[in-house]
Amino acid sequence: MSKVIVNYQATDPLAHSFRLQLSQWSAASWDFPAFIFHEQQPAVAFDSRQANRLKRHLRREIKENQSYLVVISRETWQSEWVNWEIKTAVQQDKQLMAAKLDTTSMTPLALFEADPLWIDPFDPGALLQRSI
User: What is the tens place of the pLDDT at every residue in 40-89?
Assistant: First the structure.
């Protein structure tokens, strides 16, 4: 079964709470999507030699799933990994969604070019309708 890949900033308390909320919604309802979570700042530097293995893994996960959700936090726009994953999802013709947890957070450049579906992160129905 296809899952929704959720790209979030693990160090942001609000994004972490949102991750927990998504997991609870998924566990509480059989028709709610399942999730795979990607951290926006993995322990591997984007331009390092070790990054190639992680990129292959992420590319495979994106390919195997239908939807990709970017959770925008304060530092999301600074992540090279986020922009790379967004571009990879677009290249693979995945349903791209975005959600801002805080309206003051800056949008990553790759999202401007991708024209995602913007969802209300506090409305589980919005995510359910978009990820079917």
Answer: 888 899 999 899 999 999 999 999 999 999 999 988 988 999 999 999 99
List the structure tokens of 4.
């929704």
For residues 101 and 126, is the Cβ–Cβ distance under 8 A? no
Q: Write out pLDDT tens, residues 62-72.
A: 999 999 999 99
Beta bridge partners of 98: 70, 118
43 is written with which tokens?
């322990």
Cα 2–130–101 angle (5° rounding)? Answer: 105
Question: What token pair was written down for 2?
Answer: 């296809």
- Based on DSSP, count helices (H) and strands (E) in the chain, helices before strands: 5, 5
On whether the CB atoms of residues 58 and 38 are closer than 8 A, the answer is yes
Reported pTM: 0.89
For residue 11, give both structure tokens. Answer: 């160090």
